[in-house]
Specification:
- With 255 residues, the chain is an alpha/beta fold.
- It folds into 2 domains: 165 residues, Metallo-beta-lactamase, Chain A, CATH 3.60.15.10; 80 residues, no CATH class.
- Strands 1-2-3-4-5-6 form a 6-stranded mixed sheet, covered by helices on one side.
- It is globular, with a radius of gyration of 18 Å.
- It starts with a strand and ends with a helix.
- The structure holds zinc ion (ZN) and fe (iii) ion.
């Protein structure tokens, strides 16, 4: 297993596109290109040639650059089988349990429905890197537009089972607002209080807060902590992680 070189490209208001390069083969993937132009610029700067696009889900702020980039480079577009008809230019369908090789770097694919029906995540174990789109955010999670709380909890539980050193490369810089909300759920969580302060300092300097590690998420992300008895009790659903997750998600939607 070889380690990817990863570049983060800010796009639109708060999107992150990622460029992944497998040095051994020269394969280069763009993850969730909202737009073609920032990808073009990043490729030119690095002197890289695009060979692949990896899409986590169908929303335009993740696929908007697909067709232009494909027309220019002939790259292969890899996306969720369950959303084949909603991914512009898709060439390769992948789903739960599949692996996809980007040159010598291998990703394991998870179906993580909830935000959208067909949402997937790519886990490059050899690079300790998870590309989870709009499913898991730093200290937050995506809205359940096309799924239920039970589905989203199940999806997050799959990601929660990955090694703690896994780096979470989510698709948006939502961290500061997420931290603010998380503090309303767990005002006495020391790890959360400390992390929120660090995030405020980073954002004051306009620094990216992504990626973080799963280990940090276990301690500070209320949506991953719905299985903890203390949180369940506070949300009025002892013994019920799904109801606890649903209660926290509903509060966040109104926050
Ligand atoms: Zn989305
Ligand atoms: Fe998005």
């Amino acid at each position: 297993m070889s380690e990817l070189v990863i570049r983060q490209i800010p796009a639109r208001r708060d999107n992150y596109i990622y460029l992944l390069r497998d040095e051994a083969s020269g394969a280069v993937a763009a993850v969730d290109p909202s737009d073609a132009e920032p990808v073009r610029q990043a490729l030119a700067k690095e002197g890289w040639r695009l060979t692949h696009i990896l899409n986590t889900h169908h929303h335009n702020d993740h696929t908007g650059g697909n067709l232009e980039l494909k027309a220019e480079t002939g790259c292969i577009i890899v996306g969720p089988r369950a959303d084949h008809d909603r991914i512009a230019g898709i060439d390769v369908d992948v789903g739960d349990g599949d692996t996809y090789a980007l040159g010598t770097a291998v990703a394991k694919v998870f179906d993580v429905p909830g935000h959208t029906r067909g949402h997937i995540a790519f886990w490059f174990e050899g690079s300790r890197a998870l590309f989870c789109g709009d499913t898991l955010f730093i200290m937050g999670c995506g809205r359940t537009f096309e799924g239920t709380a039970a589905q989203m909890w199940n999806s997050l539980s799959k990601l929660k089972a990955l090694p703690p050193e896994t780096r979470v490369f989510c698709a948006h810089e939502y961290t500061q607002a997420n931290a603010k909300f998380a503090l309303t759920v767990e005002p006495d969580n020391r790890a959360l209080i400390d992390r929120a302060a660090r995030i405020d300092a980073m954002r004051a300097e306009n620094k990216s807060t992504v990626p973080g590690t799963l280990a940090e998420e276990f301690l500070t992300n209320p949506f991953l902590r719905a299985d903890l008895p203390a949180l369940q009790l506070a949300e009025g659903s002892p013994g019920d992680p799904v109801a606890t997750f649903a209660a926290i998600r509903l509060k966040k939607d109104k926050f």
